[in-house]
Write a structure and sequence with these properties.
It contains eight helices and six strands. The chain is α/β, with parallel strands linked by helices. The protein has a single domain, classed as Rossmann fold, CATH 3.40.50. A six-stranded mixed sheet has the order 3-2-1-4-6-5. It starts with a helix and ends with a helix.
Length: 243
């Protein structure tokens, strides 16, 4: 399908998704045909989507990027989630050769030294595994929400991803954190215990800290950088993320 066709399809899908609840949105995506992949970081919003996929037995692949630097709590939650919903979460890991090459050039923890080194680490541990996770996919489902950061305030329900030439669906785009928490409580959804310790957004352990009262949800990610648009490149093109 051409880029023009996908742009038009994404626009139509965006309008259709806006009128549905979460179950309806995911059911619609699952019924479109092709191969849909949901990539989860095991954060609280992603757990809501996984719960819906598992409870309704939707034909959407659930995948995660096992970067090699995740918190132990996150790793334990992968196993717990699989057990609770009787699903398989496919792990995509970085290549050891890429990790070795990064360490040779920047040092294992060189991401603290420069934005360039940090983006290079995300490239090795996240972007390259993501490319494998989305290989052959026609729809990419994410847990992006407008309330997560100013950089995500205009997140649509569906959009064309030109870099990967597929449609990206964000079924929780209009959900705020209070609605997320209520869903989790009402449905006994397993969540990362770090959320209760001041970590609303959880990534790799060396790159995530608890936030301070009043800080945005993603303030604890790459906190040593001054740029308020800090991203890893998964959802923002690398050139934009580095600006």
């Amino acid at each position: 399908m051409t880029a023009i066709n996908l742009i038009e399809e994404a626009g139509t899908l965006n309008s259709r998704l806006a009128a549905l609840d979460l179950a309806g949105r995911l059911s619609l995506v699952a019924g479109l045909g092709g191969h849909a992949v949901f990539t989860t970081s095991l954060g609280i919003e992603d757990q809501v989507i996984t719960a819906e996929i598992g409870n309704h037995r939707l034909p959407i692949e659930v995948a995660t990027l096992q970067t090699g630097r995740l918190f132990p709590e996150t790793l334990a939650l992968i196993d717990e989630t699989e057990s609770q919903y009787d699903i398989r979460i496919t792990r995509y890991e970085p290549e050891q050769a890429d990790i070795d090459a990064y360490a040779e050039k920047y040092g294992l923890n060189g991401f603290y030294e420069s934005v360039e080194a940090r983006h290079a680490c995300c490239g090795v541990r996240k972007l390259k595994p993501l490319a494998r996770a989305l290989s052959g996919a026609t729809i990419w489902v994410t847990g992006l929400r407008r309330g997560q950061s100013a950089n995500r305030a205009d997140t649509p329900f569906a959009e064309y991803d030109p870099e990967r030439n597929l449609i990206k669906v964000n079924p929780l785009a209009d959900w705020d954190i209070d609605v997320i928490r209520a869903y989790v409580a009402d449905n006994s959804v397993p969540v990362n215990p770090l959320h209760q310790r001041g970590y609303p957004s959880i990534g790799c352990e060396p790159c995530t800290r608890a936030i301070k009262p009043g800080e945005p949800e993603r303030a604890g990610r790459w906190w040593w950088e001054n740029d308020e648009k800090r991203e890893c490149g998964l959802h923002v093109h690398e050139e934009t993320a580095a600006q």
